[in-house]
Amino acid sequence: xxxxxxxxxxxxxxxxxxxxxxxxxxxxxxxxxxxxxxxxxxxxxxxxxxxxxxxxxxxxxxxxxxxxxxxxxxxxxxxxxxxxxxxxxxxxxxxxxxxxxxxxxxxxxxxxxxxxxxxxxxxxxxxxxxxxxxxxxxxxxxxxxxxxxxxxxxxxxxxxxxxxxxxxxxxxxxxxxxxxxxxxxxxxxxxxxxxxxxxxxxxxxxxxxxxxxxxxxxxxxxxxxxxxxxxxxxxxxxxxxxxxxxxxxxxxxxxxxxxxxxxxxxxxxxxxxxxxxxxxxxxxxxxxxxxxxxxxxxxxxxxxxxxxxxxxxxxxxxxxxxxxxxxxxxxxxxxxxxxxxxxxxxxxxxxxxxxxxxxxxxxxxxxxxxxxxxxxxxxxxxxxxxxxxxxxxxxxxxxxxxxxxxxxxxxxxxxxxxxxxxxxxxxxxxxxxxxxxxxxxxxxxxxxxxxxx
Length: 453
Hints:
Layout: E1 7-10, E2 22-26, H1 32-36, H2 40-49, E3 52-56, H3 82-100, E4 117-122, H4 124-135, E5 142-146, H5 158-173, H6 178-190, H7 194-199, H8 212-229, H9 246-254, H10 261-273, H11 303-306, H12 312-321, E6 328-329, E7 334-335, H13 342-355, H14 363-368, E8 380-385, E9 400-401, E10 407-412, H15 430-449
Parallel strand pairs: 2-3, 2-4, 4-5, 5-8, 8-10
Antiparallel strand pairs: 1-3, 6-7, 9-10
Helix pairs in contact: 3-4, 5-6, 5-8, 6-8, 6-10, 8-10, 9-10
């Protein structure tokens, strides 16, 4: 099937005509504009390097729909996979000399002319950038993968590590006692009755059943974890509308002097999912890929044009096939890894009902390797940020590994989810500034040395 894969290019900084390098962003689970507008550090870097910028859109997201409006049937979704997305980017890389007029003195093994390309990506896009170096190292000079949990699979105990990382962010960047209060509130949600949830202000979109407490607790964990992930020191509208330092704001709710634990927890949850005040109910039935969630376009985005910023249905299909610990939660705004046993079984059942597929929990580790396997690869820089609990997904990657020590992992103290890719701010922590300097020195080294594939 042939379809149009959309990309955005910017060449105002390019120097040296066709010889200018290309900073190539591997598009994530959404319309490409979202990542173009939230990766300002790439523009700053391109201006200093004299580079072009290219942001590619992922198949089945935004307008890059292989079957148009019919792309989301179970049959047509069968062409949505990580392997296919990586192949799309490989085909685009090979076409860049014709598309952009760029060129390099180096040639691929087949004698094909290429451009000097460094891959970038944040979150899932960072995973794709790293995996592209695993599968197609001959096409690029290196990859900067930010907030990219490339080793986050069932059976590794990663859920416990993730929960501990969330708790650590609240303990370090919230108020004194906030983390322990949060733990008590979540435990209370697990054992609450329907009546207690209703009295706490929980307004579900459908009648609550016997499993309402566990569903609400999962929904709440997704929201609370996402506040940690997105704990930027300034207000953002990247995923949802959030104030500066949202973890501290959630702790204000959790530590309020009066009221029970559940109302306090729900107030913190609503600050994430309903900052605009337009959410009339919370969709507990959509948890664990249960039902189709209403896709809410963000302000200023034409829903008909870009199919919403974050492609909930497409991503849930990917969670049902290759990434079973990363289903979307909290009304399409959060992510949280389900626990083993009952929740994984429910996910598998729901995937079969909705998409006629079942997760392949061992496939990605086999196809692309686990953290320790990056010793076999080259020229990948993993940048993780301390506040972001997803950094546990590269904890198994040694700080220095790979062929010739060219695969590195760096943790930016005080940073939130791929904050190093965002435009610089006077409020950025010193650790984020250090990470950006490391990125620039590493990319310069790859461009000057030509890279080692």
